Amino acid sequence: xxxxxxxxxxxxxxxxxxxxxxxxxxxxxxxxxxxxxxxxxxxxxxxxxxxxxxxxxxxxxxxxxxxxxxxxxxxxxxxxxxxxxxxxxxxxxxxxxxxxxxxxxxxxxxxxxxxxxxxxxxxxxxxxxxxxxxxxxxxxxxxxxxxxxxxxxxxxxxxxxxxxxxxxxxxxxxxxxxxxxxxxxxxxxxxxxxxxxxxxxxxxxxxxxxxxxxxxxxxxxxxxxxxxxxxxxxxxxxxxxxxxxxxxxxxxxxxxxxxxxxxxxxxxxxxxxxxxxxxxxxxxxxxxxxxxxxxxxxxxxxxxxxxxxxxxxxxxxxxxxxxxxxxxxxxxxxxxxxxxxxxxxxxxxxxxxxxxxxxxxxxxxxxxxxx
Length: 371
Prior knowledge:
Number of helices: 10
Order of helices and strands: EHEEHHEEEEHEEEEEHEEEEHHEEEEHHH
Strand content: 25-35%
Oligomer: single chain
CATH topology of the domain at 6-69 and 101-173 and 270-350: FAD/NAD(P)-binding domain
Strand order of the largest sheet: 6-5-14-15-16-13-17-20
Radius of gyration: 20 Å
Low-confidence stretches: none
Structural class: alpha+beta
CATH architecture of the domain at 6-69 and 101-173 and 270-350: 3-Layer(bba) Sandwich
CATH class of the domain at 6-69 and 101-173 and 270-350: Alpha Beta
């Protein structure tokens, strides 16, 4: 009513909350709806790579994330013969700050949510879009509580199984890649000052610090169907899968066996080949491009999306043209990362770890370029 642009964002995850803050900082009136509950954030940790920190720094949030997480600058890969390959990551936010950070997913969510609320964003839980309605220039949506919302912009940031994507008629088959990823919360080993990965004869594992006192152990289980196991068997089963590993993995295996915080998720990807925007609506984050976790860059793409979407909308008065410019700017970068993650998943299953390591380093270098 006062001439301020309005946005309705579906999904209060990384992409949605980042976009909400980036738009609100530019004077937009923003409302976020989230189908899950307020405490629905799952997963034990993630990596904020250099591009993540660069985008968060543009919002004034990088130092907050570094303070709540664990800064690091090196990935150490150990192959089947025990040989180490070290990847030094580019420091994108200054030589005096780390190249990346591990952080607990709930901690990152709290930081992003608090910033959005500080900027006046309204967030509603237990609510989603049920259908899109014809609008006069803007976006009009009927929500699952039978109310309607009209906004200048509709952002679908509702994940790999996006409802908004389906309502826009955008196809994105979800591909399963024959791997299940386990994550267990453990005390951080003193030697884990960066990411460590260890190749095994069948599976691969690693350690990612997420604070001064905590880390998570991941294990990528190869050649398995995407089934669901009872919670009671997760700790003993993960410890069993880690049994063939020696050295540092054997040191942390007892902590995994005792861990009460373990999750197991399928390795899946999706990519929308069709345009991500349709009139005043646009898809971002996993709704448009969901990579596998091998490159630890899903969060980077989601955070970049939110910041760059706001930048393009700030540059152009015509929202449709701004959304088209956003998609043009993002598509190649996101597609490259998704497809490279798929290639690395295949190399892991073929036990071709030495071929995967250079790809991982090259992709991090590519992502370090301006988004």
